[in-house]
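Box S2. Input/output pair 1.
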Amino acid sequence: MSGHSKWATIKHKKGALDAKRGRIFTRLIREITMAARGGGDPDGNPRLRTAILAAKAENMPQDNIKRAIQRGTGELPGALYEEITFEGYGPGGVALIVETSTDNRNRTVSEVRPRLGEEWRQPRHRGFGTLPVHQEGADRHPQGKRDEEKLMNLVLENGGDDLNDEGDTWEILTDPAAYHAVLDAIHAAKIETSHAEITMIASTYTKLEGAAANQMIRLIEALEDHDDVQNVYSNFDMDAKQLEEVAG
């Protein structure tokens, strides 16, 4: 499993006890507000539908979601956010992409850009919009190969790209256009997902060990703690055991 998937899984498991839930809500509200600029109907706005599903997964009250949509459509007053994406390198030459939303461009640029070191000078090589969906071990299909084939067929028939057995989880990868069709089909089959998102996954990874691995995790945590940062993507990889220890 890539470093991205390991880190995403660890963050999800920690999330239930995360004291920063208020910050999580703030980021989700910003995403809903920005997505709603493209229309307030989630059925006709895939980005908004994805944002609403993410908010509901964090148990955000429906009133909060409604107000965020209304701010995005202009029905309610609110801050105007600008989206800025930064690219750079972290410890060990690991590539980083940081997505932000801000009402003060100068502040965000001055606080985020210096953390990323040298800016990218070559074309981007990354997987756009792949979707990991994890089914925890206790709920995985009990009958082995036969049920794996059934799950694979379910994924492929609804536009998914691949199904990977990651030990205690299944990882399903799709194109962004097929995200909701696959997710709806999974849920219709009464299979619960422990984590689902549209994200970026790199085509190649850089393995980190020792001090560089520690520095990388601390950098990601520092970036994610910034109020204006929405998402942090990277192509790091490290041993699962070490990642668990570092993420603590």
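Box S3. Input/output pair 2.
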Amino acid sequence: MSTAVAAMPDMDKLNAFLGQFVNDLGASVHTGMVVIGENLGLYKALAAAGPMTSAELAANTKTDERYLREWLSSQAAGGYITYDERSNKFSLNPEQAFTLANEDSPAYLPGAFELALASLAAVPRITECFRTGAGMGWGEHVDGVFHGCEKFFRPGYAANLVSSWIPALSGVKEKLEAGAKVADIGCGKGSSTCLMAKAYPNSQFFGFDYHDKSIEGARDSAAKEGLGNRVKFDVSQAKDFPGKDYDFVTVFDCLHDMGDPVGAAKHVRQVIAKDGTWMIVEPYANNTLKDNLNPVGRAFYGFSTLLCTPCSRSQEVGLCLGAQAGEERIRDVVTAAGFTRFRRATETPFNIIYEARP
């Protein structure tokens, strides 16, 4: 009878791995710290008022100094806030302010942390899904998932959608400027729809999502933006949203979440105009696992485990493309639906933008 003997680890490699663990542990707890800073306006206060002691910031933000001092220390240790030991004051340098205090910045970070923290609330439920194979619908998550998702994606859309993504499509910019009929599928709380509507006042926009609370939020946003006469939001499934002869159809970071993306693509094919264009925005991904084993892939695979795969599994078919589907799988979905032209129009470090035409 043989007895397995565990191999002794290489001590240098072990220490390096333990160092990675310490970084990851700190980052995990840091997620909550960023959300606290965002919710209490601490980053914005630091950016607006300049260097402050913990007592000065506490007075400025009407928060408890002792809690704030501990929070500031954690942020300084993580490099998210700058500490000057001579003055005992804390501040944000230009890069920190750009990413943590400026909501119009294309690199605004707090939404990503809010999304991550809220997603983790589902860990007990998702653990059980591993055992049963069941799904978890998008609407079953805590509200922070919906708010964080909008905050996470909106800066990238605001920075790229009108300036580079739409211009990269064949003739779409000109159609929108002249006046087009647009359907935004899986619109969530309506950020993408409203951004397009503001940029192209001659066009009509229709946003659809199967999550009723998100649609309520989208309607509120459109009203606040003064877009109510050109933007309409309705609760609808991707496979049967109403209307026809759409000049432009969009899906932003949600095709992979759908239970039946092929069925949704077939419906788009049925309702799009003969010379229409379908823009598909998906998380950046390569076609093979080995090429996705990087920091971006790590984040997207994590979100996909907690959000995207359970969402798809909860629906009809449950294809579970996942957030790292890659171009080949997206192409297969689109061509299976009857589209004859498909190409990668442009990309960012976090998204790939595909163009599909009948």
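Caption for Box S3: The radius of gyration is 23 Å. The longest strand covers residues 272-283.
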